[in-house]
Amino acid sequence: MQKTTFPNGLRVVTHKLESTQAATVLILVGAGSRYETKKLNGISHFLEHMFFKGAQKYKNAKEVSEAIDMVGGDFNAFTGKEYVGYYVKVAARHVDIALDVLSDMLLKSKFDEHEISKERGVIMEEYNMYQDTPMYQVGWDFERLMYGDQPMGWDQVGSKELINTVTREDFVKYQSELYTPENIVVSVAGNIDHKAICEQVEKLFTMKKSTRKYGPNPLNKNSTAERIFLQHKKTEQTHLVVGFPAYGEKPKEEWKHYAQRILAIILGGNMSSRMFLGVREAKGLCYYISTTTDDYTDTGTFSTRAGVDVKRATDAVAAICEQYSLIRSEGITAAELHKAKEYVKGKMILHLEDCEEFAHLLGKEELLYGEVDTPEVIMRKYDAITIDQVNQITREIFVPNELRLAIIGPYDEKTEFGKVLKM
Fold first, then answer.
1. Of 48, 115, 249, 356, which residue is the catalytic one?
2. Exposure letters 94-114 (e unless 16+ CB within 10 A, then b)
3. What domains does the chain contain, in order, with CATH numbers?
Protein backbone atom coordinates (compact mmCIF):
# COMPACT_ATOMS: atom_id res chain seq x y z
CA MET A 1 0.00 0.00 0.00
CA GLN A 2 1.24 3.50 -0.83
CA LYS A 3 -0.02 6.81 0.52
CA THR A 4 0.44 10.44 -0.42
CA THR A 5 -0.96 13.43 1.48
CA PHE A 6 -1.12 16.68 -0.47
CA PRO A 7 -0.52 20.08 1.16
CA ASN A 8 -4.27 20.78 1.24
CA GLY A 9 -4.86 17.61 3.29
CA LEU A 10 -6.28 15.43 0.52
CA ARG A 11 -5.08 11.82 0.87
CA VAL A 12 -4.44 9.25 -1.85
CA VAL A 13 -3.99 5.57 -1.00
CA THR A 14 -3.28 2.94 -3.63
CA HIS A 15 -2.50 -0.72 -3.92
CA LYS A 16 -1.14 -2.35 -7.05
CA LEU A 17 -2.79 -5.67 -7.96
CA GLU A 18 -0.76 -7.16 -10.77
CA SER A 19 -3.09 -10.14 -11.10
CA THR A 20 -5.90 -8.04 -12.58
CA GLN A 21 -6.36 -5.74 -15.55
CA ALA A 22 -9.04 -3.78 -13.75
CA ALA A 23 -8.92 -0.81 -11.38
CA THR A 24 -11.36 0.81 -8.98
CA VAL A 25 -11.27 4.48 -8.07
CA LEU A 26 -13.20 5.09 -4.87
CA ILE A 27 -13.73 8.51 -3.30
CA LEU A 28 -14.71 8.35 0.36
CA VAL A 29 -15.99 11.38 2.27
CA GLY A 30 -16.55 11.74 6.00
CA ALA A 31 -20.28 12.32 5.74
CA GLY A 32 -23.48 10.37 6.31
CA SER A 33 -26.41 10.31 8.69
CA ARG A 34 -24.13 10.66 11.72
CA TYR A 35 -23.14 14.14 10.52
CA GLU A 36 -26.70 15.37 10.07
CA THR A 37 -29.14 17.36 12.16
CA LYS A 38 -32.72 16.23 12.67
CA LYS A 39 -33.91 18.85 10.20
CA LEU A 40 -31.43 17.66 7.56
CA ASN A 41 -31.69 13.91 8.12
CA GLY A 42 -31.20 12.41 4.66
CA ILE A 43 -29.26 15.25 3.04
CA SER A 44 -26.10 13.11 2.70
CA HIS A 45 -28.03 10.55 0.68
CA PHE A 46 -29.87 13.13 -1.44
CA LEU A 47 -26.58 14.93 -2.15
CA GLU A 48 -25.07 11.61 -3.28
CA HIS A 49 -27.81 11.42 -5.92
CA MET A 50 -27.32 15.01 -7.05
CA PHE A 51 -23.64 14.54 -7.85
CA PHE A 52 -24.67 12.33 -10.78
CA LYS A 53 -26.90 15.00 -12.33
CA GLY A 54 -24.30 17.04 -14.15
CA ALA A 55 -21.36 19.33 -13.54
CA GLN A 56 -18.96 21.42 -15.62
CA LYS A 57 -17.46 18.93 -18.09
CA TYR A 58 -20.10 16.21 -17.96
CA LYS A 59 -23.14 18.43 -18.08
CA ASN A 60 -25.99 16.04 -17.28
CA ALA A 61 -26.74 12.51 -16.12
CA LYS A 62 -26.57 11.21 -19.70
CA GLU A 63 -23.05 12.54 -20.24
CA VAL A 64 -21.88 11.23 -16.87
CA SER A 65 -23.15 7.72 -17.57
CA GLU A 66 -21.99 7.70 -21.20
CA ALA A 67 -18.43 8.58 -20.20
CA ILE A 68 -18.25 5.38 -18.14
CA ASP A 69 -20.40 3.24 -20.44
CA MET A 70 -18.12 4.02 -23.40
CA VAL A 71 -15.26 2.19 -21.67
CA GLY A 72 -17.40 -0.61 -20.24
CA GLY A 73 -17.05 0.57 -16.66
CA ASP A 74 -19.28 0.31 -13.61
CA PHE A 75 -20.07 3.23 -11.35
CA ASN A 76 -22.23 3.82 -8.32
CA ALA A 77 -22.36 5.44 -4.91
CA PHE A 78 -23.51 4.62 -1.38
CA THR A 79 -24.33 6.45 1.84
CA GLY A 80 -23.57 5.02 5.27
CA LYS A 81 -23.77 6.44 8.75
CA GLU A 82 -20.11 7.54 8.91
CA TYR A 83 -19.05 7.99 5.29
CA VAL A 84 -20.24 8.31 1.71
CA GLY A 85 -18.56 6.62 -1.24
CA TYR A 86 -18.43 7.21 -5.00
CA TYR A 87 -16.68 4.68 -7.21
CA VAL A 88 -15.87 3.82 -10.79
CA LYS A 89 -14.51 0.42 -11.78
CA VAL A 90 -12.85 0.22 -15.20
CA ALA A 91 -10.16 -1.50 -17.17
CA ALA A 92 -6.92 -0.20 -15.65
CA ARG A 93 -5.96 1.65 -18.83
CA HIS A 94 -9.04 3.85 -18.37
CA VAL A 95 -8.36 4.92 -14.79
CA ASP A 96 -7.78 8.51 -15.93
CA ILE A 97 -11.37 8.66 -17.19
CA ALA A 98 -12.64 7.41 -13.84
CA LEU A 99 -10.73 10.12 -12.00
CA ASP A 100 -11.89 12.77 -14.46
CA VAL A 101 -15.57 11.88 -14.08
CA LEU A 102 -15.45 11.65 -10.29
CA SER A 103 -13.53 14.90 -9.81
CA ASP A 104 -15.95 16.78 -12.07
CA MET A 105 -18.95 15.35 -10.19
CA LEU A 106 -17.69 16.08 -6.71
CA LEU A 107 -16.05 19.45 -7.25
CA LYS A 108 -18.16 21.14 -9.94
CA SER A 109 -21.73 19.88 -9.66
CA LYS A 110 -24.41 22.41 -10.61
CA PHE A 111 -27.21 21.29 -8.27
CA ASP A 112 -29.72 22.41 -10.86
CA GLU A 113 -33.10 23.33 -9.33
CA HIS A 114 -35.01 21.40 -12.00
CA GLU A 115 -32.92 18.27 -11.35
CA ILE A 116 -33.48 18.60 -7.60
CA SER A 117 -37.24 18.68 -8.17
CA LYS A 118 -37.12 15.58 -10.36
CA GLU A 119 -34.90 13.71 -7.94
CA ARG A 120 -37.33 14.24 -5.08
CA GLY A 121 -39.65 11.76 -6.80
CA VAL A 122 -36.83 9.27 -7.37
CA ILE A 123 -35.73 9.32 -3.75
CA MET A 124 -39.30 9.16 -2.49
CA GLU A 125 -39.73 5.95 -4.51
CA GLU A 126 -36.50 4.64 -2.99
CA TYR A 127 -37.92 5.49 0.44
CA ASN A 128 -41.12 3.60 -0.43
CA MET A 129 -39.11 0.65 -1.72
CA TYR A 130 -37.37 0.25 1.63
CA GLN A 131 -40.68 0.61 3.47
CA ASP A 132 -42.06 -2.20 1.29
CA THR A 133 -38.99 -4.40 1.80
CA PRO A 134 -39.14 -5.46 5.45
CA MET A 135 -36.03 -7.62 5.08
CA TYR A 136 -34.08 -4.33 4.80
CA GLN A 137 -36.26 -2.09 6.92
CA VAL A 138 -36.08 -4.28 10.00
CA GLY A 139 -32.33 -3.67 10.24
CA TRP A 140 -32.90 0.09 10.40
CA ASP A 141 -35.65 -0.46 12.95
CA PHE A 142 -33.18 -2.41 15.08
CA GLU A 143 -30.61 0.39 15.02
CA ARG A 144 -33.31 2.91 15.88
CA LEU A 145 -34.26 0.73 18.83
CA MET A 146 -30.61 0.40 19.84
CA TYR A 147 -29.56 4.05 19.54
CA GLY A 148 -32.81 5.99 19.86
CA ASP A 149 -33.62 9.37 18.32
CA GLN A 150 -30.12 10.57 17.48
CA PRO A 151 -27.99 10.47 14.31
CA MET A 152 -26.74 6.91 14.90
CA GLY A 153 -30.36 5.77 15.08
CA TRP A 154 -31.59 7.52 11.93
CA ASP A 155 -32.07 5.92 8.51
CA GLN A 156 -29.63 7.05 5.84
CA VAL A 157 -32.42 7.55 3.31
CA GLY A 158 -33.80 10.25 5.58
CA SER A 159 -37.25 11.63 6.25
CA LYS A 160 -40.09 12.48 3.88
CA GLU A 161 -39.91 16.04 5.16
CA LEU A 162 -36.28 16.42 4.09
CA ILE A 163 -36.88 14.80 0.72
CA ASN A 164 -39.71 17.24 -0.01
CA THR A 165 -38.18 20.44 1.36
CA VAL A 166 -34.36 20.38 1.00
CA THR A 167 -33.08 23.27 -1.11
CA ARG A 168 -30.16 23.99 -3.39
CA GLU A 169 -28.76 26.29 -0.69
CA ASP A 170 -28.83 23.38 1.78
CA PHE A 171 -26.80 21.24 -0.64
CA VAL A 172 -24.22 23.96 -1.30
CA LYS A 173 -23.76 24.65 2.42
CA TYR A 174 -23.50 20.96 3.35
CA GLN A 175 -21.00 20.33 0.56
CA SER A 176 -18.85 23.26 1.63
CA GLU A 177 -18.79 21.99 5.21
CA LEU A 178 -17.99 18.33 4.58
CA TYR A 179 -16.52 17.90 1.10
CA THR A 180 -13.23 19.46 2.10
CA PRO A 181 -9.82 17.99 1.19
CA GLU A 182 -8.85 16.81 4.67
CA ASN A 183 -12.20 14.96 4.86
CA ILE A 184 -11.73 13.11 1.56
CA VAL A 185 -9.70 10.03 0.65
CA VAL A 186 -9.03 8.90 -2.91
CA SER A 187 -8.51 5.14 -2.85
CA VAL A 188 -7.36 3.27 -5.96
CA ALA A 189 -6.73 -0.46 -6.26
CA GLY A 190 -5.85 -2.45 -9.35
CA ASN A 191 -3.17 -2.67 -11.97
CA ILE A 192 -2.09 0.94 -11.52
CA ASP A 193 0.95 3.08 -10.68
CA HIS A 194 0.87 5.20 -7.53
CA LYS A 195 2.88 8.08 -8.95
CA ALA A 196 0.72 8.34 -12.05
CA ILE A 197 -2.44 8.31 -9.94
CA CYS A 198 -1.11 11.08 -7.71
CA GLU A 199 -0.22 13.21 -10.73
CA GLN A 200 -3.77 12.91 -12.02
CA VAL A 201 -5.32 13.59 -8.62
CA GLU A 202 -3.18 16.67 -8.11
CA LYS A 203 -4.28 18.01 -11.49
CA LEU A 204 -7.99 17.21 -11.16
CA PHE A 205 -8.73 17.69 -7.46
CA THR A 206 -7.73 21.33 -7.11
CA MET A 207 -9.18 22.11 -3.71
CA LYS A 208 -8.27 24.83 -1.25
CA LYS A 209 -7.05 23.81 2.16
CA SER A 210 -9.81 24.12 4.74
CA THR A 211 -9.51 25.14 8.36
CA ARG A 212 -13.06 24.00 9.12
CA LYS A 213 -13.36 21.28 11.73
CA TYR A 214 -16.61 19.42 11.24
CA GLY A 215 -16.91 15.96 12.73
CA PRO A 216 -19.63 13.40 13.37
CA ASN A 217 -22.20 13.97 16.08
CA PRO A 218 -21.19 12.36 19.38
CA LEU A 219 -22.88 9.17 20.51
CA ASN A 220 -25.29 9.75 23.36
CA LYS A 221 -26.56 7.07 25.69
CA ASN A 222 -29.98 5.81 24.65
CA SER A 223 -32.13 6.57 27.67
CA THR A 224 -35.16 4.51 26.63
CA ALA A 225 -35.75 1.17 28.32
CA GLU A 226 -37.72 -0.12 25.34
CA ARG A 227 -36.51 -3.56 24.27
CA ILE A 228 -38.93 -4.40 21.45
CA PHE A 229 -39.75 -2.43 18.30
CA LEU A 230 -42.79 -3.87 16.52
CA GLN A 231 -43.90 -2.60 13.12
CA HIS A 232 -47.30 -3.91 12.11
CA LYS A 233 -47.37 -4.95 8.47
CA LYS A 234 -49.41 -7.54 6.58
CA THR A 235 -46.62 -9.81 5.40
CA GLU A 236 -46.40 -13.44 4.39
CA GLN A 237 -43.13 -13.79 6.31
CA THR A 238 -42.03 -12.22 9.59
CA HIS A 239 -38.68 -10.44 9.53
CA LEU A 240 -36.83 -9.93 12.78
CA VAL A 241 -33.51 -8.93 14.32
CA VAL A 242 -32.47 -10.07 17.80
CA GLY A 243 -29.28 -8.72 19.32
CA PHE A 244 -27.21 -6.63 21.70
CA PRO A 245 -24.99 -3.54 21.87
CA ALA A 246 -21.40 -4.48 21.02
CA TYR A 247 -17.92 -3.09 20.38
CA GLY A 248 -16.89 -0.73 17.62
CA GLU A 249 -14.06 -1.34 15.17
CA LYS A 250 -11.35 0.14 17.36
CA PRO A 251 -12.13 -0.55 21.02
CA LYS A 252 -9.49 0.18 23.63
CA GLU A 253 -8.67 -3.52 23.68
CA GLU A 254 -8.47 -4.04 19.92
CA TRP A 255 -8.65 -7.82 20.10
CA LYS A 256 -12.29 -7.56 21.17
CA HIS A 257 -13.28 -6.41 17.69
CA TYR A 258 -11.73 -9.49 16.12
CA ALA A 259 -13.08 -11.80 18.82
CA GLN A 260 -16.64 -10.62 18.31
CA ARG A 261 -16.35 -11.14 14.55
CA ILE A 262 -15.18 -14.71 15.22
CA LEU A 263 -18.09 -15.19 17.61
CA ALA A 264 -20.57 -13.98 14.97
CA ILE A 265 -19.25 -16.53 12.47
CA ILE A 266 -19.54 -19.37 14.98
CA LEU A 267 -23.09 -18.39 15.87
CA GLY A 268 -24.53 -17.55 12.46
CA GLY A 269 -21.91 -16.73 9.87
CA ASN A 270 -22.40 -19.68 7.52
CA MET A 271 -24.42 -22.82 6.80
CA SER A 272 -22.59 -24.88 9.43
CA SER A 273 -23.09 -22.30 12.18
CA ARG A 274 -25.08 -22.83 15.36
CA MET A 275 -28.01 -20.62 14.36
CA PHE A 276 -28.35 -22.19 10.91
CA LEU A 277 -28.20 -25.75 12.22
CA GLY A 278 -30.12 -25.16 15.45
CA VAL A 279 -32.89 -22.84 14.27
CA ARG A 280 -33.33 -23.59 10.57
CA GLU A 281 -32.20 -27.19 10.10
CA ALA A 282 -33.22 -28.73 13.43
CA LYS A 283 -36.48 -26.82 13.94
CA GLY A 284 -37.46 -25.57 10.47
CA LEU A 285 -38.37 -22.16 11.86
CA CYS A 286 -36.92 -19.89 9.20
CA TYR A 287 -35.84 -19.53 5.60
CA TYR A 288 -32.85 -17.23 6.06
CA ILE A 289 -30.89 -16.66 9.25
CA SER A 290 -27.51 -15.04 9.88
CA THR A 291 -25.53 -13.45 12.68
CA THR A 292 -23.43 -10.37 12.01
CA THR A 293 -21.76 -7.41 13.66
CA ASP A 294 -22.25 -3.81 12.55
CA ASP A 295 -19.07 -1.98 13.47
CA TYR A 296 -18.69 1.79 13.70
CA THR A 297 -15.82 3.90 15.00
CA ASP A 298 -16.97 3.95 18.62
CA THR A 299 -19.94 1.60 18.86
CA GLY A 300 -21.44 -1.50 17.32
CA THR A 301 -24.20 -4.09 17.41
CA PHE A 302 -24.22 -7.87 17.48
CA SER A 303 -27.38 -9.35 15.99
CA THR A 304 -29.10 -12.29 14.38
CA ARG A 305 -31.64 -11.62 11.65
CA ALA A 306 -34.12 -14.07 10.20
CA GLY A 307 -37.16 -14.47 7.98
CA VAL A 308 -39.58 -16.76 9.80
CA ASP A 309 -43.01 -18.38 9.62
CA VAL A 310 -45.62 -15.79 10.67
CA LYS A 311 -47.36 -18.34 12.91
CA ARG A 312 -44.15 -19.48 14.60
CA ALA A 313 -42.38 -16.16 15.13
CA THR A 314 -42.33 -16.43 18.91
CA ASP A 315 -40.81 -19.90 18.59
CA ALA A 316 -38.10 -18.47 16.35
CA VAL A 317 -37.27 -15.67 18.80
CA ALA A 318 -37.09 -18.21 21.62
CA ALA A 319 -34.83 -20.48 19.58
CA ILE A 320 -32.44 -17.63 18.75
CA CYS A 321 -32.31 -16.58 22.40
CA GLU A 322 -31.62 -20.20 23.31
CA GLN A 323 -28.54 -20.25 21.08
CA TYR A 324 -27.28 -17.03 22.68
CA SER A 325 -27.81 -18.53 26.12
CA LEU A 326 -26.11 -21.83 25.29
CA ILE A 327 -22.95 -20.29 23.89
CA ARG A 328 -22.76 -17.87 26.83
CA SER A 329 -22.98 -20.68 29.39
CA GLU A 330 -21.03 -23.40 27.59
CA GLY A 331 -18.49 -21.41 25.55
CA ILE A 332 -17.05 -22.37 22.20
CA THR A 333 -14.89 -25.33 21.19
CA ALA A 334 -11.38 -25.42 19.74
CA ALA A 335 -12.81 -26.88 16.54
CA GLU A 336 -15.29 -24.00 16.19
CA LEU A 337 -12.57 -21.43 16.75
CA HIS A 338 -10.28 -23.00 14.14
CA LYS A 339 -13.08 -23.27 11.58
CA ALA A 340 -14.17 -19.65 12.11
CA LYS A 341 -10.63 -18.34 11.70
CA GLU A 342 -10.11 -20.24 8.47
CA TYR A 343 -13.52 -19.13 7.23
CA VAL A 344 -12.92 -15.42 7.83
CA LYS A 345 -9.45 -15.54 6.28
CA GLY A 346 -10.69 -17.48 3.27
CA LYS A 347 -13.53 -15.03 2.69
CA MET A 348 -11.12 -12.11 2.99
CA ILE A 349 -8.88 -13.58 0.30
CA LEU A 350 -11.85 -14.12 -2.02
CA HIS A 351 -13.22 -10.62 -1.46
CA LEU A 352 -9.87 -8.93 -1.98
CA GLU A 353 -9.45 -10.60 -5.37
CA ASP A 354 -11.86 -7.84 -6.41
CA CYS A 355 -10.16 -4.45 -6.76
CA GLU A 356 -13.39 -2.75 -5.67
CA GLU A 357 -13.29 -4.52 -2.31
CA PHE A 358 -9.59 -3.74 -1.90
CA ALA A 359 -10.16 -0.05 -2.61
CA HIS A 360 -12.92 0.01 -0.01
CA LEU A 361 -10.71 -1.59 2.63
CA LEU A 362 -7.91 0.92 2.02
CA GLY A 363 -10.13 3.97 1.82
CA LYS A 364 -12.28 3.23 4.85
CA GLU A 365 -9.31 2.52 7.14
CA GLU A 366 -7.52 5.67 6.01
CA LEU A 367 -10.56 7.95 6.23
CA LEU A 368 -11.82 6.82 9.63
CA TYR A 369 -8.58 5.93 11.40
CA GLY A 370 -5.72 7.54 9.49
CA GLU A 371 -3.90 4.25 9.05
CA VAL A 372 -4.37 1.03 7.11
CA ASP A 373 -3.83 -2.52 8.30
CA THR A 374 -2.82 -4.76 5.43
CA PRO A 375 -4.77 -8.00 4.90
CA GLU A 376 -1.77 -9.92 6.25
CA VAL A 377 -1.84 -7.92 9.49
CA ILE A 378 -5.60 -8.39 9.83
CA MET A 379 -5.25 -12.14 9.36
CA ARG A 380 -2.56 -12.31 12.04
CA LYS A 381 -4.90 -10.52 14.43
CA TYR A 382 -7.61 -13.11 13.78
CA ASP A 383 -5.09 -15.91 14.25
CA ALA A 384 -4.11 -14.51 17.64
CA ILE A 385 -7.64 -14.79 19.08
CA THR A 386 -8.01 -17.46 21.78
CA ILE A 387 -10.92 -19.49 23.11
CA ASP A 388 -10.74 -17.60 26.41
CA GLN A 389 -11.02 -14.27 24.63
CA VAL A 390 -14.08 -15.32 22.64
CA ASN A 391 -15.72 -16.73 25.76
CA GLN A 392 -14.94 -13.50 27.64
CA ILE A 393 -16.65 -11.24 25.12
CA THR A 394 -19.56 -13.67 24.92
CA ARG A 395 -20.19 -12.97 28.60
CA GLU A 396 -19.61 -9.25 28.13
CA ILE A 397 -21.92 -8.81 25.12
CA PHE A 398 -24.71 -11.27 25.87
CA VAL A 399 -26.19 -9.47 28.87
CA PRO A 400 -29.83 -10.56 29.27
CA ASN A 401 -31.30 -7.14 30.02
CA GLU A 402 -29.51 -5.66 26.98
CA LEU A 403 -31.27 -8.03 24.58
CA ARG A 404 -33.32 -6.20 21.89
CA LEU A 405 -35.81 -7.30 19.23
CA ALA A 406 -37.01 -5.48 16.10
CA ILE A 407 -39.79 -7.22 14.23
CA ILE A 408 -42.00 -6.57 11.21
CA GLY A 409 -45.10 -8.68 10.71
CA PRO A 410 -48.90 -8.91 11.05
CA TYR A 411 -49.01 -8.41 14.81
CA ASP A 412 -50.83 -5.85 16.94
CA GLU A 413 -49.26 -6.64 20.30
CA LYS A 414 -45.69 -7.33 21.39
CA THR A 415 -46.59 -8.95 24.71
CA GLU A 416 -46.03 -12.51 23.47
CA PHE A 417 -42.62 -11.58 22.08
CA GLY A 418 -41.65 -10.04 25.41
CA LYS A 419 -42.32 -13.37 27.11
CA VAL A 420 -39.78 -15.24 24.94
CA LEU A 421 -37.15 -12.48 24.64
CA LYS A 422 -35.00 -13.79 27.44
CA MET A 423 -31.90 -15.83 28.21
1. 48
2. bbbbbbbbbbbbbbebebbee
3. 2-204 (3.30.830.10), 228-420 (3.30.830.10)
